């Protein structure tokens, strides 16, 4: 690693100058840790497929409002020291103090602050924002800063390679060191001569695709031994390179090879023992297209491919044919993506130093060759106020603190190579961004693919980058502009004016986004004014990264710029286990849209059962778009993703890590349209993924109907049959009979004018064991059917069918009689069955279980209206033992029960259980379709998309994102 302290010290200012820090978030005299409640937890992580314990650390300390999932990810990923050793970190306090302490010390040493009082305020503000999950640094900061390891803070690297064997072999070595450190890199191979050109010695050159093979093998080897994350890389080739068609076809041909080998009986699933024979699978490939080429496609003209050594055209191709081939390859295997060279370099602040030729693996960082970028992301939902407006002022104040910290990190950071270290110190590229945009828009009642949603996203992004560059100009006055600023001053200021002009073009739709826009416009005015005088401390300020692991660390519902993945999720519970929940922003959104408590409850219950809002009771059609998601029945249209990126792109220094998802039925023409429209709307890069386009994607156990091809369907069907046979052989259900004398309760009810009685009996532990229903006259058909239903339900309960299963199946059934009830807790019922099982849930299920099903008492609904939370302030013992109330003596007849107690078993089939372990697998079960994502190498669960990568919501592992 290359140390850069001496270089950074050259940029420090004279004594006496420095930032004055305003206290905004923390409280003077109160340490941020003392303002919150802490608790001890056990973190035990297992691979659910093998049952193997892969991690265990007990008694770790976290704030009580941090989810189990967040504490698990931080403990397993970021705590330093060997597990069980005395020096092992065991509290979030230690982790944050380790990182913040380094930033504070460097800020003091390099004269960033005016006084020691300002240093103290900076320390407490930064600590407060981190511990309260308002933002997070990227993973390398948590891995390395404050430890004895090299202080690598960057997650994104761009390399360079020239047309020489020394340079090519050095490329292999540099990538290896970067992968070993848990980061990823990208580069452009267009300087390497094509296979259609001659070497100086007279032979024919190998071409870049040939050298890609060696780099891919190296990445695969390092990936298999890595402990931090998988290797990630981006390979870019210019569209005018003579080997462009071979490059486009590389992964396409390999996908055909995978199919052939799979059909021959080889294990070609991702992670399978035979998949290593396939090449080019460890990199994302992108074609760098010029505006000249795109115009040739539009006009149907020929396009010239140029010699790398002379620049002369050595071959011409039909532009539209090549364009179609690119789309066909992306249709077949999701590669290549597109990078738009004209747009990228038109927004380049340092053109006098060199062109931008490549990006990092996820395509959000685009800058000079041999450079790096450290990232940080804000949690947007934290800035949503109680009145459902966005707190733009506090957001801007948070950006000031974060940008300051990010710039300080370059002063002490180490880098994997000397050229990367020099470029980063000279240009100080930063990558501030955000997460939870999808959740924020939903909570505000705005559709992701709507004018209102795009206006809100654009104003927030503009405010973030404008504030960042304004602080950068202020820092330049204190510790100097970046070293490369002088030669690029005119270009940098031109790009700032372009950002300002784009901000002027935003059309707001309400006072809410209008207020944010006013603040953003004021910031850009300051940027232009201060920049002329001071210059800028940073060549780049912002990107939108995937925020995979750190998104879970901040308990974000959505990652990066993404919409919500699905409306139903899994929530980990203290002590182990998990529960299905409906996205908690949904009730807030429904209240914002004007729905009353009863309707909100009914809609939430519907979503819990179906996973979507189509035909949800009481939900207006015009509000459906608010709850559109990345996957599922109301999945966003591909152009909805493109339009959202286009709304934010003019306000970013870099680009956006995001994949445009298309259904399996999408055509090549649709992919061509996505790529073309992305160019026209001013995006810097676009990647697509057509569902099920890859063979090497494992199916989730217990998932829905996969639609790969006939062979996949047959294999899945056979596996399912074998699994069911095994379960039938080994499963031996045992009936848990009720005691002869047991506690019961009888409830009278009225549903839509029809009267009835329900008596329920409990086991000694208070759990429900029998139900008797009295409806209609004795001897009538209805009474007989109710007796039979009571027997069947009671036997199921005694054989272990969870009450939650009955509640999930029978609530929301619609038939007459239906309507108003005389029960304050259940004011409306869609049928008698709907009422009965809601009442049983309220009587016999604990709060967490009911909350997962969206069922609340009248008291809890009222509490939510008053405090924003359904949860009781303190659950007493009496509350937890509701089921042991005696039978009310003043109520009428109770039906006889002796025939139920001794009834015989009807079926030995076990109660159906959901095999899902993550939200992706849960969505598969609900929708009956497969989510095309890889399985996590650490814990075996299905990952979910995050930007251009995948992230495991169980353990936080990623496929290369930050």
From TrEMBL:
Domain of life: Bacteria
Enzyme Commission number: 1.17.4.1
Domain TSCPD: 739-843
Enzymatic reactions: a 2'-deoxyribonucleoside 5'-diphosphate + [thioredoxin]-disulfide + H2O = a ribonucleoside 5'-diphosphate + [thioredoxin]-dithiol
Every Ribonucleotide reductase class II vitamin B12-dependent N-terminal domain range: 42-133
Cofactor dependency: adenosylcob(III)alamin
InterPro entries in alphabetical order: RdRp_reductase_class-2 (IPR050862), RNR_2_N (IPR013678), RNR_lg_C (IPR000788), RNR_NrdJ/NrdZ (IPR013344), TSCPD_dom (IPR024434)
Domain Ribonucleotide reductase large subunit C-terminal: from-to ranges: 154-689
Keywords in alphabetical order: Cobalamin, Cobalt, Disulfide bond, DNA synthesis, Nucleotide-binding, Oxidoreductase
GO terms for MF: cobalamin binding; cobalt ion binding; nucleotide binding; ribonucleoside-diphosphate reductase activity, thioredoxin disulfide as acceptor
Family: Belongs to the ribonucleoside diphosphate reductase class-2 family.
Function field: Catalyzes the reduction of ribonucleotides to deoxyribonucleotides. May function to provide a pool of deoxyribonucleotide precursors for DNA repair during oxygen limitation and/or for immediate growth after restoration of oxygen.
Protein name as catalogued: Vitamin B12-dependent ribonucleotide reductase
């Amino acid at each position: 690693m290359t140390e850069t302290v001496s270089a950074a010290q050259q940029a420090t200012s004279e004594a006496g100058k420095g930032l004055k820090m305003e206290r905004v978030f923390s409280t003077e005299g109160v340490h941020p840790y003392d303002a919150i409640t802490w608790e001890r937890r056990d973190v035990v992580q297992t691979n659910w497929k093998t049952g193997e314990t892969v991690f265990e650390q007990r008694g770790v300390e976290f704030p009580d409002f941090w989810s189990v999932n967040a504490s698990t990810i931080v403990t397993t990923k970021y705590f330093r020291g060997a597990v069980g050793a005395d020096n092992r970190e065991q509290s979030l306090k230690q982790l944050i103090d380790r990182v913040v302490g380094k930033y504070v010390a460097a800020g003091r040493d390099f004269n960033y602050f005016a006084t020691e009082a300002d240093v103290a305020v900076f320390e407490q503000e930064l600590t407060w924002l981190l511990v309260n999950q308002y933002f997070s640094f990227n993973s390398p900061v948590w891995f390395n800063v404050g430890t004895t390891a090299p202080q690598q803070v960057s997650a994104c690297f761009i390399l360079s390679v020239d047309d020489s064997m020394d340079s090519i072999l050095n490329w292999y070595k540099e990538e290896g060191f970067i992968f070993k450190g848990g980061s990823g890199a990208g580069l452009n191979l267009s300087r390497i001569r094509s296979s259609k050109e001659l070497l100086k010695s007279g032979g024919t050159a190998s071409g870049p695709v040939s050298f890609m093979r060696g780099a891919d093998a190296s990445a695969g080897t390092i990936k298999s031994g890595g402990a931090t994350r998988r290797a990630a890389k981006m390979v870019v080739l210019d569209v005018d390179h003579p080997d462009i068609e071979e490059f486009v076809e590389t992964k396409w041909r390999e996908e055909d090879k995978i199919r052939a080998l799979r059909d021959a009986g080889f294990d070609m699933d991702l992670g399978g023992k035979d998949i290593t024979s396939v090449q080019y699978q460890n990199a994302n490939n992108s074609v760098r297209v010029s505006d000249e080429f795109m115009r040739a496609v539009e006009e149907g003209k020929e396009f010239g491919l140029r010699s790398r050594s002379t620049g002369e055209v050595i071959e011409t191709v039909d532009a539209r044919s090549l364009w179609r081939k690119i789309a066909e390859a992306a249709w077949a295997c999701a590669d290549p993506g597109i990078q738009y060279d004209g747009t990228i370099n038109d927004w380049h602040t340092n053109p006098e130093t060199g062109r931008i030729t490549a990006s990092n693996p996820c395509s959000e960082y685009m800058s000079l060759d041999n450079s790096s970028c450290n990232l940080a992301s804000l949690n947007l939902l934290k800035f949503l106020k109680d009145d459902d407006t966005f707190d733009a002022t506090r957001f801007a104040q948070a950006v000031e603190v974060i940008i300051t910290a990010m710039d300080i990190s370059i002063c002490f950071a180490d880098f994997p190579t000397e050229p990367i270290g020099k470029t980063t110190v000279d240009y100080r590229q930063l990558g501030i961004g955000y997460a939870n945009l999808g959740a924020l828009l939903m909570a505000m009642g705005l559709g992701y693919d709507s004018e209102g949603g795009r206006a809100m996203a654009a104003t927030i992004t503009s405010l973030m980058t404008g504030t960042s560059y304004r602080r950068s100009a202020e820092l330049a006055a204190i510790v100097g502009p970046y070293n490369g600023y002088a030669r690029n001053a005119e270009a940098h200021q031109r790009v700032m004016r372009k950002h300002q002009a784009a901000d002027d073009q935003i059309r707001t739709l309400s006072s809410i986004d209008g207020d944010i826009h006013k603040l953003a416009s004021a910031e850009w005015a300051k940027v232009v004014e201060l920049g002329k005088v001071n210059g800028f401390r940073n060549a780049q300020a912002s990107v939108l990264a995937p925020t995979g692991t750190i998104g879970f660390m901040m308990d974000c519902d959505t990652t990066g710029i993404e919409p919500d993945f699905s409306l139903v999720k899994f929530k980990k519970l203290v002590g182990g286990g998990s529960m299905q929940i409906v996205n908690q922003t949904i009730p807030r959104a429904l209240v914002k849209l004007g729905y009353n408590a009863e309707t909100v409850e009914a809609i939430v219950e519907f979503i819990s059962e179906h996973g979507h809002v189509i035909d949800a009771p009481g939900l207006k059609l015009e509000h459906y778009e608010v709850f559109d998601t990345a996957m599922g029945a109301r999945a966003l249209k591909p152009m909805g993703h493109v339009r959202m990126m286009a709304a934010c792109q003019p306000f970013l220094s870099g680009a956006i890590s995001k994949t445009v998802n298309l259904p399996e039925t999408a055509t090549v023409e649709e992919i061509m349209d996505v790529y073309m429209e992305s160019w026209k709307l001013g995006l810097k890069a676009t990647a697509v993924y057509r569902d099920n386009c890859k063979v090497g994607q494992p199916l989730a156990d217990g998932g829905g109907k996969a639609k790969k091809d006939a062979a996949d369907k047959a294999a899945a069907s056979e596996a399912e049959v074998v699994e069911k046979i095994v379960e039938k052989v080994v499963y031996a259900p045992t009936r848990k009979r009720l005691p002869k004398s047991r506690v019961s309760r009888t409830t009278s009810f009225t549903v839509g004018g029809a009267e009835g009685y329900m008596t329920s009996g409990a086991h000694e532990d208070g759990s429900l064991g029998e139900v008797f229903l009295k409806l209609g006259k004795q001897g009538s058909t209805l009474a007989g059917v109710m007796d039979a239903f009571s027997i069947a339900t009671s036997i199921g309960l005694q054989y272990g069918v969870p009450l939650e299963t009955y509640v999930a199946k029978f609530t929301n059934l619609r038939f007459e009689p239906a309507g108003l009830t005389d029960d304050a807790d259940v004011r409306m019922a869609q049928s008698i069955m709907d009422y009965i099982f809601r009442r049983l849930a309220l009587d016999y299920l604990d709060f967490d279980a009911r909350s997962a099903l969206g069922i609340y008492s009248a008291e809890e609904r009222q509490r939510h209206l008053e405090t924003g939370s359904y949860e009781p302030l303190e659950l007493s013992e009496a509350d937890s033992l509701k089921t042991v109330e005696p039978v009310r003596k003043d109520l009428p007849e109770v039906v006889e029960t002796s025939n139920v107690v001794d009834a015989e078993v009807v079926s030995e089939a076990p109660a159906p259980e959901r095999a899902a372990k993550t939200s992706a697998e849960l969505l598969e079960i609900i929708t009956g379709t497969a989510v095309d994502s890889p399985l996590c190498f650490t814990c075996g669960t299905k990952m979910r998309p995050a930007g251009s990568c995948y992230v495991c919501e169980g353990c936080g592992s990623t496929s290369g994102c930050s």
